[in-house]
Amino acid sequence: MAADSAHASQHSPDGEETRRDFLYLVAGAMGAVGTGAFAWPLINSMNPSADVLALSSTEVDLTPIEVGQSVTVVWRDKPVFIRHRTEDEIAAANDVAINELPDPQTDADRVVKPEWLIVGGNCTHLGCVPLGQKTGDEKGEYDGWFCPCHGSHYDTSGRIRKGPAPLNLPVPPVEFLDDTTIKIG
Ligand code: FES
Fold first, then answer.
1. 146-175 burial, b for 16+ CB within 10 Å, e for fewer?
2. Which domains does the chain have, with CATH numbers?
3. pLDDT per residue as tens digits for the range 54-99
4. Residue nearest ligand 1's atom 1 by CA
5. Which residue has the higher pLDDT, 92 or 38?
6. Residues labelled catalytic
7. How far apart (Å, rounded) are the C-alpha atoms in residues 130 and 118?
8. For residues 118 and 128, what is the distance between their CA atoms, to the nearest angstrom?
9. Is 128 in the pocket of ligand 1 (CB under 6 A)?
């Protein structure tokens, strides 16, 4: 699977950014530990039971992710967005009237470290994967993510700000194993 996808990525019109995002995604999936090890490549073909999926976790080395860059990793067969936020993005996430949000939540409640935002990558409307991970993607009116399926706009904290999605992008369980390594799940 990896070889096929890597081959495809070399022909991507998005060039280097796409290739880098893709390579990182594979690294993240291969980093699954415990019972979940290598769960991702097997999921499509073997349909593992729910308890196997529930046990899986993914370790990610954050070192290569530069400020302002986003990558996507896979956890429990779903995309997870990791964004190394800029100071401006962090400031924007905090410069919000919380009680006016559709799904009120402070930024502090959604991050372990302000510079790292880690959220589920499926729109809370009908599950599309929003744009905003790749350089040049439309990020919506709040500079976070934009779901083109029906027009949902998420902010730099992954909170829903406009459109039909009812909830913020969910925050998975995240633990920092050291300064630059996280465990999701
Ligand atoms: S699935 Fe995202 S707006 Fe409908």
1. bbeeeebbbbbbbbbbebebeebbebbebe
2. 2-184 (2.102.10.10)
3. 558 999 999 999 999 999 999 999 999 999 999 999 999 999 999 9
4. 126
5. 92
6. 150
7. 14
8. 17
9. yes
